[in-house]
Design goal:
Pfam families: NLPC_P60. This is NlpC/P60 family protein. Belongs to the peptidase C40 family. By secondary structure, the chain is of the alpha+beta class. It has 8 helices and 8 strands; from the N terminus they run H-H-H-H-H-H-E-E-H-H-E-E-E-E-E-E. It has 2 domains: 150 residues; 131 residues, endopeptidase domain like (from Nostoc punctiforme) (endopeptidase fold (from Nostoc punctiforme), Alpha-Beta Complex). Helices cover 60% and strands 9% of the residues. The protein has a 6-stranded antiparallel β-sheet with strand order 3-8-4-5-6-7. Strands 1-2 form a two-stranded parallel sheet. A hairpin with an 8-residue loop joins strand 6 and strand 7.
Length: 333
């Protein structure tokens, strides 16, 4: 006969086993989070890479500007040095003339003059010589200061360019790594999804206000189906800011190369007062213009035309974008 104590022990063991069996799957499930949506992951990586691409393009633009400044400063320094040498030659000639006795004081002029008129003539010549010498010295001083300033500007530009070279190289490495991630995420998508991403879905006609805005809009719409390519400015492939820049170029308006700089152009527009041709800007949700990673062009009907990321084509999409629409600018009109 089994004792009451043994029965209680058996029931305790059995209950523990049942509980362990019930809890174990729950714990395992919580330790293994569900895989993220592959398409959402692809879009997220594309947005991050787009921001890095914009940063890299900005760094390249800054480097180009510094190299151009260095070239201008170098030319300015050379010209200033030539001017310095020219005025230095004049000063040396006047100094030589002084040592050779071309300059006399008033007493000397009086003693050697043969007449009153001769004395006046000599004094006039002495005054002219003194004036020329003072002017030459002043010009020499200005030329030296100008040359020194040009040399300093050239050195600063050279230092800044050298620093930016490293920054561009680092941003390019960052971009290359993120592009690999985007391509891997794109490759993980179902083939039918990848094919759908490359298909133009809206071939409708849209018209903007007469003038440059509509010309830019029609230019952008004409590129529906063009492939996305990092850093591309057209005419057969684009990144986001490359498309908007190219479109407005066709309308005779030059925009900066990167989205964050394009945000500084034109006039701010409330999101409830958009017109076709306005540019839409997207950030990381912070509202910080420095965090802008995407730009598109409004076409009307709450739609935009844009070049989103690798694996997709220029096409029309909902203007809400990724949910981080942070502002709009009217470039023309």
């Amino acid at each position: 006969m089994v004792s009451h104590r043994n029965k209680r022990i058996s029931r305790t063991i059995l209950t523990g086993a049942v509980l362990a069996t019930a809890v174990a799957p729950t714990m395992a499930a919580s330790a293994q989070p569900a895989d993220p949506d592959p398409l959402a992951r692809y879009n997220e990586l594309g947005a991050h890479a787009a921001k890095t691409n914009e940063d890299m393009l900005k760094a390249r633009g800054d480097l180009k500007a510094k190299r151009e400044q260095l070239a201008r400063s170098t030319v300015a320094e050379q010209q200033a040095r030539e001017e310095e040498e020219r005025f230095r030659g004049q000063v040396d000639a006047l100094t030589t003339a002084t040592f050779e006795g071309a300059r006399f004081n008033q007493l000397s002029a009086l003693l050697v003059s043969e007449s009153q008129q001769d004395f006046l003539n000599r004094m006039s010549a002495l005054n002219m010589l003194a004036t020329d010498n003072n002017e030459a010295l002043q010009r020499l001083g200005l030329a030296v200061a100008k040359a020194d300033h040009a040399r300093q500007s050239a050195q600063e530009a050279a230092n800044a360019a050298a620093k930016l070279v490293g920054e561009v190289e680092q941003r390019q490495r960052d971009l290359d790594g993120q592009i690999k991630e985007v391509r891997a995420a794109l490759g993980s998508l179902d083939p039918s999804v990848r094919n759908d991403l490359k298909r133009v879905k809206d071939t409708g006609s849209y018209v903007g206000p007469p003038g440059s805005a509509n010309a830019a809009l029609q230019a952008a719409l004409s590129k529906r189906g063009a492939a996305y390519e990092w850093g591309a400015e057209g005419p057969s492939a684009f990144d986001c800011s490359g498309l908007t820049m190219w479109a407005y170029q066709q309308a005779g308006i030059q925009l900066p190369r990167v989205a964050s700089a394009q945000y500084d152009v034109g006039m701010a527009v409330p999101l409830n007062a958009l017109l076709p041709g306005d540019l839409l800007f997207y950030d990381d949700g912070t509202g910080n213009p420095a965090a802008i990673h995407h730009v598109a062009m409004y076409v009307g009907d709450d739609k935009m035309v844009d070049a989103p990321t690798q694996g997709q084509v220029v096409d029309l999409r909902p203007s809400r974008g990724d949910g981080h629409l942070m502002g709009a600018r009217r470039i023309a009109g």
